[in-house]
Amino acid sequence: MVIDPEPLDARSTYKLLIGSVVPRPIAWVSTQSADGVRNLAPISFFTVVGRKPPRVSLTMQPRSDGKTLKDTFVNIRDTGQFVANMATFPQATHVHRSAIEYPSDVDEFDVLGLEAAPSEVVRPPRVREAPIALECEVFQIFSSPDGLGNIVWGNVVRFYIRDDLYLPSGRIDTAALAPIGRLAAEYSVTDNAFVPPLPSETLAARHGRRMARLDSHEDSFSPIDTSTWSPSGSVLEP
Prior knowledge:
Blueprint: H1 10-20, E1 24-25, E2 27-32, E3 38-43, E4 46-51, E5 54-60, H2 71-79, E6 81-86, H3 92-97, H4 108-112, E7 116-117, E8 126-127, E9 132-143, E10 150-161, E11 180-182, E12 187-189, H5 200-206
Antiparallel strand pairs: 1-11, 2-3, 2-6, 4-5, 5-10, 6-9, 7-8, 9-10, 11-12
């Protein structure tokens, strides 16, 4: 099927995008408002855009009402700082629940019972249980003409790497991380690795195989087909 996006509305094209660009890494972003209120939210439009200086990108849509800016973006815009914590399998439930649209004066660390650890050079704390955290300062913000879609480029000013993950060669032991990523509206855990070429029998054994579900849902299930899904990426129900 060939689809022309021009006649589609934003909701429809968003479904196609998030189902096509997979898996997406999740930045579990901690910020702090100008008034000192801590915030924590997952952002799955997240990637690397530079290496010297190290630089990452966050793309944020408005809240589910389609017009209110997310607290994460407002805090970054107002303070110029954020921390991108790595989202891993042991914290998957907390990552998901931190996407609930809490009021702006609510501290997600407190609500979710998460322990914060002080950052080295930025004001927002990191998530203590996160194995990796990137302390960032804003380099540039790009906004759509309506001001609702926003891209933040941040320079990484400090890396936090848990001691057991930092190898003598200077690389990270990625096989020990179990990072989670976004598919469409679901999550996936990275629990295997390979370097091509692979034996033909290995490729044949996996040909056409569906992903294994770790929950109790049917193979055809997707949160997109439920009334609680929002193209904002927010969780509408706890």
